[in-house]
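From the pipeline queue, job 12 of 40. The input is one protein chain; the requested action is below.

Action: predict structure.
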Amino acid sequence: QVQLVESGGGLVQAGGSLRLSCATSERTFSTYIMGWFRQAPGKEREEREFVAGINFSSGTPKYGDSVKGRFTISRDNAKNTVYLQMNGLKPEDTAVYYCAARRGGVAVAVTTTLYAYWGQGTQVTVSS
């Protein structure tokens, strides 16, 4: 069982920045495709929105349309950690952010069902 632990969430004003981290003790972390999803208030788990993803070789990342140009995903395989740098935050970015891991495949997946492992989530609140 792969355990993922997110951190870095909090309350920030519109236009501000936060950096989320997702750490794991999984020794084969470098072989996993990693993703960030978010669940807005009132939404169900199945409605989690794809935010960003990165494959195991840190190839070209993929982003959801609503965060392109503002968020950056990166990973440090030596530290078994993936990051999400969020700049230019907007009130509509308010959500619980989840880290997810997928083993197998090469391309970043944007659907929740393709990720087998999930963290507990970290709250991000953006005030206007």
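Job complete. The mean pLDDT is 94.
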